[in-house]
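Protein 1 of 2
SEQ + STRUCT:
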Amino acid sequence: MLLDPGMDLTLRPMRYPDFYERYRAAIRNTWTVEEVDLHTDLADLARMTAQERHLINRLVAFFATGDSIVANNLVLNLYQHVNAPEARLYLSRQLYEEAVHVQFYLTLLDTYLPDPEERVKAFAAVDHIPSIRDKAEFCFRWIDSINGIDRLESPGERRLFLLNLICFAACIEGLFFYGAFAYVYWFRSRGLLSGLATGTNWVFRDESMHMEFAFSVVDTVRAEEPELFDDELSAQVTRMIEEAVEAELAFARDLCGDGMPGMSVEQMRSYLQYVADQRLARLGMPARYGAANPFAFMELQDVQELANFFERRVSAYQVAVEGNVSFDETF
């Protein structure tokens, strides 16, 4: 079974071809930071209000370390315990994508914050900005929850692993990052920060694939070991998601203050609760909030975007990875 201890190295016969196809799809979605033109955003930043600049500075400070935290959990926990070589192919690709995201946010900070001291503060946000520190501590607590487990021998250990996996899929990539993306797309809906929005399109696509891969691992474990998915696990996941919503709401209060046209703490509350219910539904668990999505600009973000004529490159771009052509072939 997928969570059996060990390190299976055999790709044939392939036990989980869906994981391999996800790896191939990720390869087709390759992009590089050099393709994102952030310099077009500088004029927008220069004419923003002080409150808008505060929001952007806090947002990029969160981005500066968010993907590094995800990558650490992937290396320390997920790769060790998901025992299928085709799944580990995908996890290897995910680690590369997290590195690209880290590079993107490094470039973002270097462009948006020309003052070296401001950049240093942004990279140290987990130490001195309470709303970001609280989210980081939530992440670290779940990383540490299985750090000492070398082999998933017992049902209890497997449940702990599932909680870690669900936390990073549903709460961190599926809630913390989705909340951050909402601020980016709010600016885009006002015709601002098109460079940031372009790069975020590609990050959003990657993160959505990461989340769906993790949920497919959960689906596989549920099919193989249904006894792990009891009422206690459902209650633990619901409490975890409630805590993540509250942490992200504290971040929203920091960013939004008294609110701006089209972006307020109450709107973010509704959006985060709406997203949380989506994650619970994907896990086959009861909804918690019954909230609606207040942001029209986010309604199409869960599907691959159509080409934007004014973008330098469409976010749906894919790199071909299959097919051979010989020079004597008839065209």
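Protein 2 of 2
SEQ + STRUCT:
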Amino acid sequence: MKQHLDFERPIVELQAKLAGLRQHPETGSHGVSFEEEIGALEAKLEALRRQVYSTLTPWQRVQVARHPRRPYALDYIQQAFTGFEELHGDRLFGDDRAVVGGFAMLGDRRVMVLGTQKGRDTKENILRNFGSAHPEGYRKALRLMRMADKFGLPVVTLIDTAGAYPGVGAEERHIAEAIAVNLREMMMLEVPVLACVIGEGGSGGALGIGVADRVLILENAYYSVISPEGCAAILWKDRKAAPEAAAALKITAGDLSGLGLVDEVVPEPLGGAHHDARATAEAVRCALMRHLEEVAAMGREERLRARYAKFRGFGHYTEPGTTPAASAGRMEAVEAR
């Protein structure tokens, strides 16, 4: 399987040339040293990397978010948390392996950590349903979050899914209801709730574990109401228009931060999280611990009010014949009642 993306080809070619030079002896057959040329190539490679990765288009960032070697939820749980004890099942239907969760330690705090998990190969992807959860996955997540709420443990969620599973079985077991209940119940959890988008953040499948006091996102992750391909199929009638859709949707971490939809963009190593998974996990750990300290310091009522206001404040609308300010004032009056 190809392990590099199309736009990374110049970097891969230069890496191959550099590797070839390094395989030569210290001195060539004619007494010529390759050290100077190797040094020049290394400098050129570093400059090329910075140029390529600093000018990624939204569609290219989506590709990085989907990279097959990118760290998944369990990778972060193993490297950013300690003492993870996985819990299984929703106590209603079954155990959805696309959602993982259990007790863990984040620094010196015991938390309940949850995440959507993809697979590395065909067998694991079938087991994990490619990271797309069934209703029982969201009900398992809700069971664990309610347990955390009962015992006063903060909740941390790691989001990486193209979306909830849209199959017949999922519809028969009421996938929309399961997600809707999670949205309502997460809004009312009395403990601190943190969410971090580590790869794909697709539609209600992501939001089903994404209602949180603080929402973080990795630099090359995306968070969207629909996938670029789905949007392209609807609006352009052609999935090949996915790059245009990705740009129009404003789904990158930078766009979301500018719109106030996420609270922090967690930086990744040059080239993406898969180039240094340990460093990325450490950055995620530090960001989560910092935000958890801030949210935990708030009183219960203050935290619930702030969480509600956070999500109610997303988006604006204008009624015919009114100004945006008047419409906003009318909404505030309705909420006050």
